[in-house]
Amino acid sequence: MSVQNVIHRAVDEAEASRYTEMWRSLLPYGLDSDTGGYRRFAWNTADLACRDWFRSEAAARGLEVETDRNGNLWAWWGPKGPGAIVTGSHLDSVPDGGAFDGPLGVVSSFAAVDVLRARGFSPAKPFAVACFSDEEGARFGIACAGSRLMTGALDADKARGLRDLDGVPMAAAMEQAGQDPETLGRDDERLEGIAAYVELHVEQGKALAFTESPVAVASAIWPHSRWRLDFTGEANHAGTTRLEDRHDPMLTYANTVLAARKKAKLGGAVATFGRLVVEPNGTNAIPSRVRAWLDVRAPGEEILAAVTEEIIKAADERAGRDGTVLSTERESHTTIVEFDHVLRNRLAGSLRQTFGAVPVLPTGAGHDAGILAAAVPTAMLYVRNPTGVSHAPGEHADDRDCLAGVTALADVLQELCQ
Ligand SMILES: [Zn+2]
């Protein structure tokens, strides 16, 4: 019998059908029928529906739900208390996001509770399923806002004042949803009560697609910088201005995109321009300014710094040739996160019996587990994503792999909660 069949059988039919039913009830919330993607943004109608879904799944299992000072949800199996083992993820999405990023972790957490109960196991330690608020930052621009507020990495006043595209401040959005924005801020009491946080997440690349393993343990989250590049030139007529008379910032920008690709490839990093504001943005006008945002991620801080420097240098040189001016500003930097080595090894050890030696993988994607790592021991499990597509409707994980993920999470939690 193959390893896959053993894993599949480890979750019995009743638990598997309960798992399927959870997905069936969650999937409609925030689904855009035109794009096939999800639009679950912090405190919007779809997000609130997902929060209600979380409460009802918890209630169906007799778990007591509380909302913390920063809007994160906690479903406790048994009494709260110090030394808690916590698992979970998030339910919000990027614009037109996929179904699995976040929800797979929350659904699998509830399913793991079902599996543990079917095994006759009850935790000897306080245990909670958590759902972190506003992980994607799609509405107010700061990712992992719920966990950043909780650890103090995001200032409460700053958070309250963040505005969405309609000008609605986060404080007002929370208030309207019944969440008191005055209580935001670092939550020492809660952090001190957590012994470990384990987050299961769909893989956001395709490293596992080339292996026999449906699951992996995370090693680290790559460091990550976001820069704003302003290319300033001279607006002029698209029909009458000779090519040699132009100071076209779009040309400088376009060459910078190509340079970023080349420098990232040579340096073993990834670099992306995904956002652009063009002025005056007319079809028949040479732009006066192109404002672009560069996202760079790399396996280490030194590579990240070196690749970024080379991209900016290439942009600057090109600006000199085009008669345009470049100015740059680093808008954010997230340092490398090494997940707790003891916890990571414990996870790998508890998976060995069912899965053999599982891959240990780094990722370029940020997570609440990465933010919480500054305050509590954290670890992550990844479930294979056959196409590697994420943050898009094509994001996918096979049922069989998802159930293997549930088994893996249950095994890990059983080990940690003994
Ligand atoms: Zn996620």
Please report the total strand number as a whole number: 15
Topology pattern, helix = H, strand = E: HHHEEEHEHHHHEEEEHEEEHEEHEHEH
Show unreliable segments: 1-6
- Beta content: 15-25%
Structure, briefly:
The protein contains 13 helices and 15 strands. Strands 1, 2, 3, 4, 5, 6, 13, 14 and 15 form a nine-stranded mixed sheet that branches. A four-stranded antiparallel sheet has the order 9-11-7-12, covered by helices on one side. Strands 8-10 form a two-stranded antiparallel sheet.
Word description of this protein:
This is Allantoate amidohydrolase. InterPro entries: Amidase_Cbmase (IPR010158), Bact_exopeptidase_dim_dom (IPR036264), Peptidase_M20 (IPR002933). Belongs to the peptidase M20 family. Keywords: Hydrolase. There is one protein chain. With 418 residues, this protein is of the alpha/beta class. 38% of the residues lie in helices and 22% in strands. A hairpin with a 5-residue loop joins strand 1 and strand 2 (73-77). It is globular. It binds zinc ion. Zinc ion binds at residues 90, 101-102, 135, 201, 367.
How is the topology of this model organized?
Elements: H1 3-10, H2 13-26, H3 45-60, E1 64-67, E2 73-77, E3 84-90, H4 103-118, E4 127-132, H5 145-151, H6 156-161, H7 170-176, H8 188-192, E5 194-202, E6 215-221, E7 224-232, E8 236-237, H9 249-267, E9 270-279, E10 285-286, E11 289-297, H10 301-322, E12 325-334, E13 337-338, H11 341-355, E14 360-363, H12 368-372, E15 378-383, H13 399-417
Parallel strand pairs: 3-4, 3-5, 5-15, 6-14
Antiparallel strand pairs: 1-2, 2-4, 6-13, 6-15, 7-11, 7-12, 8-10, 9-11
The structure holds zinc ion.
Zinc ion binds next to loops.
